[in-house]
Design brief:
The protein has 297 residues and is an alpha/beta fold. The protein has a domain of 126 residues: Aldolase class I (TIM Barrel, Alpha-Beta Barrel), CATH 3.20.20. It is built from 13 helices and eight strands. Helix 2 packs parallel to helix 4. The longest helix is centred in the N-terminal third of the chain and has 13 residues.
Length: 297
């Protein structure tokens, strides 16, 4: 569970869903990405018991008591620490993903020490690729605002080179070679991250089946008055609309039978995004520019 529409711990039935999936398959790998800022100790203990050793929780915590809330708006550190420790002490396997910004790079080493102390099995120093705007233009800082337009924390790249995303440094080279990022996305080869040796699919909060969180994540961008301005809707409407992708009605196989997966893959051979190549695939799985993968190197 990694929510396009919010943190899984805020959903009413998260624990019950994990209970159900575990009952269906003892060997299924279960995991969740979360900011850890909600629920009580008992809930986290139950989650640890349900997931067991065939799974883990990835805690997305990007600072400590003085810095985490600057990016994770409204999240209280005392609840984060309490919940992480409750999950681990109940036998849960925990991993910690730490996005590094300028304001939080000072806490990386101490956070890593805490992770070892608490029993976190893996601490990931995540080199954020969040310094590219919607037009694929690079930027040094990002002025965060909330949905009401109020100014929040100004996010800046970390100062230390070891914490910087290498793909962002490569962007100027890509732009020089192709004459701009748009030209690169139009022409780049695509190596799909979810169609390789370990293929998987994404099921949305509505029960819709799509290839990945990135394609599904284009459905509802909050800044669009009309969500259908996003290109993914051409593919959804092309097979009969949302209902055709609903696994609750048709099952997973029934959604595959609509041809949407093949239509998306076929689009990669189009000459440009304007001609029908699905742009989000170029942005997330283009072979020469991959800020997402570089977060984990």
């Amino acid at each position: 569970m990694c929510g396009n529409l919010g943190d899984p711990i805020s959903a009413r039935d998260t624990l019950e869903i994990f209970d159900y999936t575990r009952a269906m398959n003892d060997n299924m790998w279960l995991s969740m990405n979360t900011n850890a800022g909600a629920r009580d100790v008992t809930w986290w203990q139950e989650l640890a018991k349900t997931i067991g050793k065939n799974g883990a929780v990835i805690f997305s915590v990007d600072g400590l008591e003085n810095t985490n809330h600057l990016y994770r708006q409204g999240v209280q550190w005392d609840k984060v620490e309490r919940n992480m420790r409750a999950f681990i002490e109940a036998g849960g396997r925990a991993r910690w993903d730490y996005l590094i910004f300028e304001h939080s790079e000072c806490d990386v080493e101490r956070a890593e020490q805490l992770a070892k102390q608490w029993g976190v099995e893996k601490f990931m120093k995540k080199k954020t690729g969040r310094f590219i705007n919607s037009n694929s233009e690079s930027k040094e800082t990002h002025q965060a605002t909330n949905r009401k337009g109020a100014t929040m924390q100004n996010l800046a790249k970390p100062k230390k080179a070891e914490y910087q995303n290498l793909a962002l440094l490569k962007q100027k080279e890509i732009e020089k070679t192709y004459g701009g990022m748009k030209n690169y996305y139009d022409s780049c080869d695509i190596k799909c991250k979810v169609a390789g040796k370990d293929p998987n699919i994404f099921i949305t909060a509505e029960g819709l089946v799509l290839p990945c969180c990135w394609t599904a994540g284009r459905m509802y961008k909050w800044w669009h008055k009309d969500p259908k301005v996003e290109q993914i809707w051409d593919f959804i409407d092309g097979v009969g609309g949302k209902e055709a992708l609903d696994a609750k009605i048709h099952g997973v196989k029934g959604v595959f039978d609509t041809g949407i997966m093949q239509n998306i893959q076929n689009s990669w051979n189009k000459k440009s995004i304007e001609d029908g190549k699905l742009g989000v695939c170029s942005m997330k799985c283009g072979t020469e520019f991959d800020p997402f993968a570089e977060q984990f190197t």
